[in-house]
Backbone:
């Protein structure tokens, strides 16, 4: 668990940096934050290519994938619903309960609670030596589908905020086209899988995503087309063929092992990229002190709300406990659910989007602090998972 501890400390270092660096480098922070965002996405793409490279698709059992997608849909929807209801019925005044305009910000801000941070989850579970477990294999599928559902559920929310736009349909077509490519060309692409090549692929995916985003902003800066790098990176990893003559694929049980090629140099580079990613995820958090200017409640009251929202958000991830009874024990199913708790860069992105729409007040304060708390507790969650399946 030494690497898990190191990764946890790196997350906390990044989180602390996100709160102080913007003040210290005020004039340069806008440019620096863009570089940090692109670096975060590049590191995430690198990790997700390796996750796809290790992924196995059982084409003979499509119904199992359909079940997994349904379970992942609950993991994306339930935390959002629970937290949005809390924001409306607890944090909003009673007169706002029947006002649609009061529901809109709550529904958008509540999305921060939904997405599992796939990059953080996979890196942490692998570092804990859980790559060869049923828990890891199931969490890998659920987390990817979870983030896919998160993006899909953001579409009606954006429509609620800005109305029907053609960009929404484009995003849906792009997403499902990528899933078809992964299914159709699984292990067909004979490109290099060495780390320098994978880093180039990662940078290329981020560049294409960013160019598409900036170009679409020129057409409509209210609803640009934003393709998250997680899915195309994962799909590329799925279609990459393993080197001819390599040993049959097996998941590695060694603690500290990372997803991707097995040799020592590849593992060392993957570990470094994962560590850098942890720092960058922390640095991507919004400045809580700025958000706190909207707080009109006492610190004690806010702390209670943060704790309750965090509990609700994580309870929303617990549906896997009630399924997979023929595949795994109760402890394993519980471990999968807890493994879905880590949040990170996607949740922070939702908060930043909420702020860009002018959403403020106690719900944003509570959401930001809850996300920070969950980020700090990531190492604890992984330790709980390991203890459950020891």
Residues:
């Amino acid at each position: 668990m030494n690497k898990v501890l190191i990764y946890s400390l790196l997350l906390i270092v990044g989180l602390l940096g996100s709160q102080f660096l913007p003040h210290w480098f005020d004039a340069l922070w806008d440019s620096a934050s863009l570089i940090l965002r692109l670096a975060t996405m590049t590191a995430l793409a690198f990790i997700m290519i390796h996750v796809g490279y290790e992924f196995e698709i059982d084409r003979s059992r499509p119904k199992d994938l359909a079940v997994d997608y349904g379970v992942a849909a609950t993991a994306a929807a339930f935390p959002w619903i629970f937290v949005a209801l809390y924001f409306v019925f607890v944090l909003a005044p009673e007169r706002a309960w029947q006002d649609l305009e009061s529901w809109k910000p709550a529904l958008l801000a509540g999305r921060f609670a939904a997405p599992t941070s796939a990059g953080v989850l996979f890196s942490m579970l692998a570092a804990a030596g859980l790559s060869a477990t049923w828990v890891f294999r199931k969490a890998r599928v659920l987390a990817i589908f979870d983030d896919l559902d998160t993006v899909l559920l953001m579409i009606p929310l954006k429509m609620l905020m800005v109305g029907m736009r053609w960009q929404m349909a484009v995003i849906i077509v792009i997403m499902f086209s990528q899933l078809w490519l992964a299914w159709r060309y699984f292990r067909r692409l004979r490109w290099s899988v060495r780390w320098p090549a994978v880093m180039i692929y990662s940078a290329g995916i981020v560049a294409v995503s960013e160019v598409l985003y900036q170009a679409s902003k020129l057409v409509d800066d209210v609803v640009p087309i934003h393709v998250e790098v997680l899915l195309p990176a994962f799909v590329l990893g799925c279609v990459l063929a393993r080197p001819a003559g390599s040993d049959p694929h097996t998941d590695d049980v060694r603690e500290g092992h990372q997803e991707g090629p097995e040799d020592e140099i590849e593992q060392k580079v993957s570990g470094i990229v994962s560590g850098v990613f942890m720092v960058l995820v922390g640095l991507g958090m919004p400045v809580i002190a700025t958000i706190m200017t909207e707080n009109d409640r006492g610190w004690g009251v806010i702390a209670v709300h943060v704790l309750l929202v965090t509990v609700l958000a994580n309870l929303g991830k617990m549906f896997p406990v009630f399924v997979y009874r023929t595949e795994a024990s109760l402890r394993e199913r519980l471990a999968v659910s807890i493994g879905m708790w880590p949040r990170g860069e996607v949740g922070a992105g939702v908060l930043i989007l909420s702020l860009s729409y002018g959403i403020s007040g106690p719900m944003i304060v509570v959401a930001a602090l809850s996300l920070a708390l969950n980020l700090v507790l990531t190492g604890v969650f992984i330790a709980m998972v390991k203890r459950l399946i020891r």
The longest helix spans residues 62-91. The chain is about 70% helix and 0% strand. The mean pLDDT is 84. Residues 58 and 64 are 9 Å apart (CA to CA).
